[in-house]
Amino acid sequence: MQQVTDRIFTDTTIRGCNPSFVKTSKGPVVIDTPQLPSKAVEMRRLVEEHGVIQYVINTEHHVDHIFGNYWFKGAGPIIHHQGVHERFMTVYPELDPFEYALEALPTDDPGGVALVPDRETYYANMGTADIVFSGDVTLKVGDRTFNLLHTPGHTPGQVAVYVPEERAVFTGDTVFSECTTWLMTSNVDQWIASIERILALDFDHLMPGHGPVTNKAYLHTQVAFMLEWEAAVAVAVAKGWSREETMQRVSFAERYPVDIGQEYMMEYIQTKNAGALWDKYTRATPTDYPAKEPPAR
Asked: What is the domain-level CATH number for residue 133?
């Protein structure tokens, strides 16, 4: 794992989110767990070399941030926002998170296949929260403070974790650093407001949900990219383009790559982003159009 400060470690090299941990005088705190089972087992072993895990914090409900909770169960209290709790490993018409997680194993974690139980066992022991909160919450863990700030937009239960003593913030998927942003199912206006809230914090190190560790200035890049998306689709609507035409013609595929292991999903991300924003500007609802599963690898 990459060491960002004397206390902060994160992994930006694997498929899924950037799982991280922070050392405190009382023991480490984990922020998001790896999607890949063997990486989750490996990370737990590594973290526990630094002491007893005090908390496992989930920044959102998407499977790449929470699937690894199964292998962290019993390692320390799991805490996340009510919005995460309500959607934790929930099967939706457009996505079965359990099946989606399994899809990555043959190519990205073949050794992890044997670690995954059957669906019934997984759901009975998946490691949902011991502590659920609404709004914000502050954890004082030894000599470090963890401010869990509700930053909705990418997801309703999105949380940023601010550690002032380290001058660091873990944004989850509020920031996609140097990789393409998943806008579908998101509330972009809320998202931008949440970034404004993070900008008001005093910090140097930013651990994004995806992509390399960055700094405060990148928040402006993230906002600018989302505004470009909104402007491009707004222009398409103004020109009278249909939803299908907008999805075919509006794309930022050349701007950034897709994060590790999901390169094959570029077209899917671009079309879903465009379609979701077209719905916003035309006041269409997602139920007006049939859901489509992400492409199989």
From this structure: 3.60.15.10
Q: How many helices (H) and strands (E) does the chain have?
A: 10, 12
Residue 293 within a domain: no
Quick check: pTM over 0.85? yes
Task: Give the residue carrying structure tokens 């737990």.
Answer: 44
Order the strands of the 159-163 sheet from edge to edge.
137-141, 144-150, 159-163, 168-176, 205-210
Q: Which domain holds residue 112?
A: 2-223
Distance CA 227, CA 35 (A): 30
Q: Is residue 54 included in any domain, yes or no?
A: yes
Same-domain status, 163 and 266? no
Over residues 19-35, the pLDDT tens digits come to 999 999 999 999 999 99
Task: Burial-class residue 17 by CB neighbours within 10 Å (0-12, 13-18, 19+).
Answer: buried
AA letter at 230: E
- Amino acid letter at 234? A
Considering the domain architecture, whether residues 70 and 126 belong to the same structural domain is answered as yes
Residues of the chain scoring pLDDT < 50: 287-290
Whether 183 contacts 146, CB under 8 Å? no
